[in-house]
């Protein structure tokens, strides 16, 4: 069974300029995802990027970049399925064997658990009924919308002003790491399928760098709270 990791890293970042190659505690942001992928001991690690500069940096850290992403798949409106179309077409063009499983590692998530992502892979290997698997972290479920300046609950508040989190039940957020089947070359909006396994990981792994505040927060954790990181995840894949 062939398993590839994909690090999607386009160059046109809006929130933080050149975010994916900006130095975070001394090394490019996307290098953390590349180093993590290598620590998984899977078959191959690819970086999907539209930038030659990004490609050279990715290769320095051990990722393969045999081709650049198309302009359409690198646009600010492109979704994962657009990147997949481009990826599968380029695999065929460059005679790269189609993998059975893809591990999708967004570079904006610096912290990941090797054990938990390996469990996602194991779920797909051992359970053919699953279409994909995702790491998930605990999230606040009592969320509101603001409509014309008025708070409107996006959950059933049962007519109460207050609900304890324990009474509301557990809720989880996704997007840190996705592991899914690639042999069928599914590039629809539903490429993860309808039967998705879950591996619960810690809140640290849910930190996503979207803007300057996020960047500074993650960098401060890396610089000054290494003991806390080590408590939750194996940081042997870190380069510093």
Radius of gyration: 19 Å
Proportion of helical residues = 25-40%
Structural class: alpha/beta
Elements, N to C (H/E): EEEHEHHEHEEEHEEEHH
Mean pLDDT over all positions: 94
For the secondary structure, the number of strands is: 11
- Tertiary shape: globular
Could you give a short description of this structure?
This protein is α/β, with parallel strands linked by helices. The chain has helices at about 30-40, 50-60, 80-95, 115-125, 165-170, 210-225, 225-230; strands spanning about 5-10, 25, 25-30, 45-50, 100-105, 130-140, 145, 150-155, 170-175, 175-180, 195-200.
Please describe what this structure looks like.
With 240 residues, the chain is α/β, with parallel strands linked by helices. Helices cover 30% and strands 20% of the residues. It contains seven helices and eleven strands. The strands form three sheets. Strands 1, 4, 5, 6, 9, 10 and 11 form a seven-stranded mixed β-sheet that branches. A two-stranded antiparallel sheet has the order 2-3. Strand 2 and strand 3 (27-28) form a beta hairpin. Helix 6 crosses helix 7. It is globular and about 60 Å long.
């Amino acid at each position: 069974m062939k398993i590839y990791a994909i690090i999607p890293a386009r160059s046109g970042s809006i929130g933080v300029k050149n975010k994916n190659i900006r130095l975070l505690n001394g090394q490019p942001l996307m290098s953390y995802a590349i180093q993590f992928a290598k620590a998984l001991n899977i078959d191959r690690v690819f970086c999907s990027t539209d930038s030659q500069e990004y490609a050279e940096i990715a290769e320095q850290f051990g990722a393969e970049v045999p081709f650049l992403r198309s302009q359409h798949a690198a646009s600010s409106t492109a979704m994962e399925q657009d990147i997949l179309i481009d990826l599968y077409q380029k695999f065929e063009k460059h005679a790269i064997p189609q993998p059975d499983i893809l591990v999708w590692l967004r570079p904006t998530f610096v912290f990941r658990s090797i054990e938990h992502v390996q469990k996602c892979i194991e779920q797909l290997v051992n359970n053919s009924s699953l279409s994909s698997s995702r790491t998930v972290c605990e999230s606040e479920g009592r969320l509101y919308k603001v409509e014309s300046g008025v708070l409107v609950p996006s959950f059933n508040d049962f007519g109460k002003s207050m609900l304890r989190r324990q009474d509301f039940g557990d809720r989880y957020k996704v997007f840190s790491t996705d592991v899914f089947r690639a042999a069928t070359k599914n590039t629809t909006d539903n490429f993860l399928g309808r039967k998705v396994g879950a591996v619960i990981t810690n809140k640290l792994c849910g930190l996503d760098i979207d803007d300057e505040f996020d960047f500074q927060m993650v960098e401060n954790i890396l610089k000054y709270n290494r003991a806390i990181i080590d408590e939750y995840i194996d940081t042997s894949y870190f380069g510093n």
